[in-house]
Known about the structure:
Elements: H1 2-30, H2 33-41, H3 48-57, H4 74-77, H5 80-85, H6 102-137, H7 142-156, H8 159-173, H9 189-219, H10 222-229, H11 234-245, H12 247-254, H13 258-263, H14 266-272, H15 277-286, H16 290-318
Helix pairs in contact: 1-16, 2-3, 6-7, 6-9, 7-9, 8-9, 10-11, 12-16, 14-15, 15-16
Amino acid sequence: MIAYLIRRIAYAFPVLLGVNLITFMLFFMVNTPDDMARMHLGQKHVTEVAIAHWKRDHDYDKPLFFNKDTSGAEQLTQTLFWQKSLKLFVFDFGTSDAGRDIGYDIGQRMWASLAIAIPVFMVGILVNISFALLMIFFRSTYLDVWGVIFCVILMSISSLFYIIGGQYVLAKLLRLVPISGYSGGLEAWKFIVLPVIIGIVSGIGAGSRWYRTIFLEEINQDYVRTGRAKGLAELHVLFRHVLKNGMIPILTGVVVIIPSLFLGSLLLESFFGVPGLGSYTIDAIQQQDFAIVRSMVFLGSVLYIVGLLLTDLSYTWCDPRVRIQ
């Protein structure tokens, strides 16, 4: 097990380096530091002296990959790639173009994202799997047919409709919760209830239909027919056998959601004014603060790789036939 973990961690470094290199090229070769300076200073009446001052103040006045004006190791370390990208491997996110500590901002904002993402993640999986098992239990009946139609209808509705509709009905008409905003401490619950409900409801269609497809494939396997032949009740077959053997594809899909637990929901946090990492990224894109965007892209890549590793480890718990060698 230890050797497997070490090997997987070693494999992750080339992947992260590739993601880092591609991100760096997109930000610094397609959009050069001179272009960044013009964006922040304004396109009109910008002198070369002002651009040079801005690049020096924000440490963008170095070569991209190789500094021929220095000697020794500084030819590599005194470059933009080393100082702006490779430092991310030790989670040194540096400062934003506005001068704020990115690492401190991430540490402060991730709790608001987790307050919304974890309930949506946990309750959403429970609701989707329960609804999918209900359709499987009543498969080939009107309940199953109307359940699939209901899922398709939910899938066809835009996420913006759920957000605007929830704000109008629950917040404006019924006045059960605030329309937007956020407060720390125990008062935070009334601000996150509506985003959590919308996050769960908007995911029922796609999630339940996908789980139903997984369970339909398992329900026709030989071991299910054997269980029924032994006289097992249908509910026992569904929960003891079908659900357990369908966990591997479920875990594979869940790993995609893991980065969003920390990085937040871009739409929900922006519409509800929640100061999480999702709104942090949106604000950075709008303000063209590429230091923050680079950090969030790298952090998302790390979390995705960690999720893949946790998924492989969880396979051994769900299926005894899987062994980590």
